[in-house]
Structure formats: C-alpha cells, structure tokens
Amino acid sequence: MSNLFVINNPLVKRDVTILRDKETNTSTFRAALNRVSYAIAIEIANSFELDEIEVQTPLEKTVGYKIKKQIVLVPVLRAGLSMVDAFLKMIPDANVGHIGLQRDEITLKPIDYYYKAPKKLEESLTIVLDPMLATGGSAVASFNSLKQKGANNCILACLIAAPEGIEKMNSVHPDVPIYTASLDRQLNEFGYILPGLGDAGDRTFGTL
Predict the structure, then answer these.
(1) Phi, psi of 51 (to 5 degrees)
(2) Residue 90 phi, psi dihedral angles, 5° rounding
(3) How far apart, in whole angstroms, are the C-alpha atoms of residue 104 and residue 98?
C-alpha cells in the first residue's frame, strides 16, 4: 500500500475517537470533522510542487513560493461537502467541482446522478473529498469520471478507509495516492466500515 498515507497525529487520533462515539452530537461531530479535514489538507500539501517567486518585504526583496498547479477540490455529494470548508481555508484559491453518487443499498454499487467540474483538469491537481472509503465503488466511479474529463494528477482524501476500498482503488487507479485519518478493520455484510463512525453524511447534517 505504498500509495496509502495514514496520518499519525495525536490530535487527529483524538478527533477520530470523537467522530466514532455514537454519543457525539451533530455540532461536536462537525467541529471534529473540520479539524481532521484541516490535518488531512496539511498532510496532502506536503506533496504540492512549488514555484519560486520574488517578493518585496518592507525591508528587502526575498524569495517566496506559490503552488505550481491549480488545485481543484471535488467533494462527492453529499458527505464530501463536510470537508470542503477546511480545505478552502487552507487553499483559498482552489476551484471546486462536484460529483453526485448514491449507493444502491442492494448491489452496493454507485449510481451517478450529478457531475460538474472546472475546465482544464489536465493542468490541475484534483483532490477528491469523501469521508468514507468503504467498498471503493464511489471512489473508483469518481476517478473514472474525472479522468475521462482530463484529470491526470489526482488524490483521494478521506476520514476513514477500509482495506477493501484501498484494494479496489489500487486495482483500478493505482496512480492515485490515498490520504486518510484511519485505516479501519473491514466492511460488514452491508458494506459499512468497521469499527467505523456510522454514516458521515447523516451525522454531519443531522439527518439521522
């Protein structure tokens, strides 16, 4: 799993514990999710390429830096929306697209119902935001769509991941690095991550 990056940070581990706790209320869940998303954004930023620029300080000219590629954030609706705010605070000039995927509860396969992304994806670094990497079906479908539109430099950011989802992504999109706050044990018979944290969308938006 050379393309898997699990954030090993005490504050992230604390917040993942808050996210897992079934007694955590909606506002506390949102706050913890936001903090974890910040941490993931910072970890991903370690891979960004930079261009050197000249900047004038109040005292003299010096060397500064800017991100080389345009960053495009693509949350998978609707749960991925919960990660956008933190990423935009860290990368305020990022563009944002959207992919709408809904899981068929019988087949566990994703159903595509919406797609909108910026142009010139081939010139950008595209980061897909999806809190849960479970079966991997939604992630694979997302990158299938994005690559068909020209995206060739992609990253997946998720809160928690299951080995089954990692394996699926590695088999179909081995070029996509995966950043997560936790690699969980397995999926249950319904395709939910164990130990997991429940449904991230429902817990974020209070639709339990």
Answers:
(1) -110, 140
(2) -85, -30
(3) 19
Terminus-to-terminus CA distance in the chain, angstroms? 34
Answer for the pair 102, 92: CB distance below 8 angstroms, yes or no: no
Question: What does DSSP assign to residue 23?
Answer: T
By annotation, the residues acting in catalysis are: 103, 107, 199, 202
**Token pair of 69 as six digits:** 């590629």
Ordered structural domains, the chain, with CATH: 4-205 (3.40.50.2020)
Q: If pLDDT is split at 50, 70 and 90, which confidence band does 108 have?
A: low
Query: What digits encode the pLDDT tens for the residues 141-175?
Result: 899 989 988 999 999 999 999 999 999 999 999 99
Q: How far apart are CA 28 and CA 7, in angstroms?
A: 21
Burial class (CB in 10 A: 0-12, 13-18, 19+), 56: exposed
Question: Contact 52/58 with Cβ under 8 angstroms?
Answer: no
> E strands along 85-177, which residues?
95-96, 98-103, 110-116, 124-129, 132-133, 154-161
Closest to 176 (Cα-Cα) out of 143, 150, 148: 143
> Which of these, 52, 53, 15, 55, lies nearest to 35 by C-alpha position?
15
